[in-house]
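input
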Amino acid sequence: MIETGLKKLDKFLGGGIKEGLITDVSGQNSTGKTQLMFQICVNALKDGKEVLFQDTTGEFRPERLFEIMQ
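output
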């Protein structure tokens, strides 16, 4: 499991995001979906896991991911 960083969400999900599965996050604009996914990616990378982030909107900004990693 990969923790989201949000204790209540991790509890709701049974411990976090399941490894090895495609996870789709959807919702209204400006609700924090990208921020959440970036945090999940960083948490996985810190644990030595590999991550594939597929941007379906063409708005991926790697500099934001680097900011979170620092």
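quick obs: The chain has three helices and no strands.
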